[in-house]
Structure formats: structure tokens, C-alpha cells
């Protein structure tokens, strides 16, 4: 039987006009891709981008189920054809379907046991919506629906040992930040913070901290929604009426969870000591802090899926595309984390 370590790590190359394709090519040229890494994308586009950037990369067309073992300077590719030629820095809604097709191929391969994990380069939500997919809100939600699960959790992780700008947390060395809501306008966030959602997301987070990170009894700290966590109801009542009752119910189930705590002081060493993950109420509340601590050396993980998916901590950087100046550091972290999580899942299943 093929082990998880022998299965491909799939890299969807993301928005073809962005930096995703060249990040993969950079790592291939530098010999920093894992042996089992396989890109999914348009072969001609990747070849042209490599030539334009002066990257010495040999593309190896392959198919799902075929064994791969690339060496430095080689990049195995599962081919998916663009609708129209891609120009770096120029978004084209005609290629929206191409981006989603690379994701579909990756999910199908994981579900068929032909791949160990998916690592996604950034896509551009706006151009996919303009390309005929008006309900698209992001990788996380698309993967939830593609995998047929009711809900997932977006969590970003940064390892303080990988860079010098991060504070020295007194916990595990990783700052893990998960989100109750993801890609919502701020006007909609408060209405989305319900008892059911807070409890459900917290359970998913606790379960995957154990399943994927081997933390037997994870300790979670939860942000309040309002300034000063509502100041006893004077600055908002969501903490009193929704979040605190949800956390009480979770503690009654045996989950080690604390809060709601003021978000402006939670992200300090004293409050993070011994904490395995922070649960923020909305996107920028948690991710602004994490990206300040380790932007470019962090990875995004989708919890609650029947497969492993990690991603970079940044966007398509259209303004940098085709210039050869983008930093592949986050993609490198996402690849390493994907392999680690896939091995952990395989080990737990034995």
C-alpha cells in the first residue's frame, strides 16, 4: 500500500496573472520543492513564465496515479489548459473557470487516494466572480462545498522559530489563529456570530488541534467581538448574550476554552502563555496580528475537511507578477506544513 509520504503534494498554481505560478517555479529552480510536489496548471504558461524570469526549470508532464520524484530544477505538472493566454499583472475573467478546474482536479485526486494534500497558491476572488461565479467567496468556502461538509475553520499558523520579527510566545512556539467568520463584510459579522456557530467552530478547532497537531487537550482563547469584550454590555451585548453562553456550554463538554477576552490585549505574551490557538470573531481581528508577527513565513490551513489543505498567507500580488521579486517563503512553509499534517493524519489513522 502506498504510504502518505509517497503520495504527491499537489500545488494549485492559482491566479495565472498573479505571482502563484512563479512562486512554484522559483522553489523548483532553487531545489526547495519536496520530491513529491506536483503543480497543477497550464504547462505552456508555466514554461513561458520560467523563460521570462530566467528560471532554469524543466517541466515534466504527468498524470494522476503516476509516480513522481522530482529533483532540483524539475517540476512535475498535471496539465490544465487556460481558456485564454495569461499575461502577468493583467487579470482576465475568462480564466476563472481554469482556476476552479485546478482545484477540482486536486480535490478529486485527494478523495481518490492519489494525493496526500493540497497546497494552494493565491487566487483572485473578484476576477472569479466576474468570470461567471457570482457566489464564490474564497478557497475556504469552495473547498467546504466541494468536500460536502457543513462547515470548516480557517486557521493561520506561524512558527516563531522561522523568523526574527515574531514575539517569543511562551506557548508552543506557534501562533495559531482561527476564525469564527471568514470573508464577510463587517456589516454582516455581528449577525453571523451566533451561539450555534461559536460552539460548532470551537468544536471543529479543538478536534483538529488534536487530530492534526497532536495536542491531546488543546487550550483555546477566544476574542470578544466588541471593544473591551463589550465592557459588561456597555459597548455591545454579543459577549453577554451569545459568546459567553457558548463558551460555558463548551466548557461543560470538557473543552478547555477561555474568554471572551478583549482582542486588543489577548495577543500579548502574558495572555498567550500556554494557549494552543486563538479564536477570533472575524478576519482582520485575528489575521492582522498574525501577519504582523510573521507575514511571509506563515501558512493557512482549512480545518474540518476530509483532506489536508494548506495555503500561503498572502494574495495574488498582481503588481509584482512577472517581475521575479515575489518571496516564495510562505509557499515553502505551506508545503512543509502540508506534509507534516498529512503524515500526522496517516499516523493517526493507523
UniProtKB/TrEMBL annotation:
The gene is pdxA. It comes from the Bacteria. Its cofactor is Zn(2+); Mg(2+); Co(2+). It is found in: Cytoplasm. NCBIfam families: pdxA. Belongs to the PdxA family. GO terms for cellular component: cytoplasm. GO terms for biological process: pyridoxal phosphate biosynthetic process; pyridoxine biosynthetic process. Transmembrane segments: none annotated. Its EC number is 1.1.1.262. Catalyzes the NAD(P)-dependent oxidation of 4-(phosphooxy)-L-threonine (HTP) into 2-amino-3-oxo-4-(phosphooxy)butyric acid which spontaneously decarboxylates to form 3-amino-2-oxopropyl phosphate (AHAP). It comes from Vreelandella nanhaiensis. This is 4-hydroxythreonine-4-phosphate dehydrogenase. GO terms for molecular function: 4-hydroxythreonine-4-phosphate dehydrogenase activity; cobalt ion binding; magnesium ion binding; NAD binding; zinc ion binding. Pathway: Cofactor biosynthesis; pyridoxine 5'-phosphate biosynthesis; pyridoxine 5'-phosphate from D-erythrose 4-phosphate: step 4/5. The keyword Ligase does not apply. The active site is located at the dimer interface. Keywords: Cobalt, Cytoplasm, Magnesium, Metal-binding, NAD, NADP, Oxidoreductase, Pyridoxine biosynthesis, Zinc. A divalent metal cation binds at residues 183, 228, 283. Substrate binds at residues 139-140, 291, 300, 309. Homodimer. It catalyses: 4-(phosphooxy)-L-threonine + NAD(+) = 3-amino-2-oxopropyl phosphate + CO2 + NADH. InterPro entries: PdxA, PdxA_fam. The keyword Amino-acid biosynthesis does not apply. Pfam families: PdxA. Binds 1 divalent metal cation per subunit. Can use ions such as Zn(2+), Mg(2+) or Co(2+).
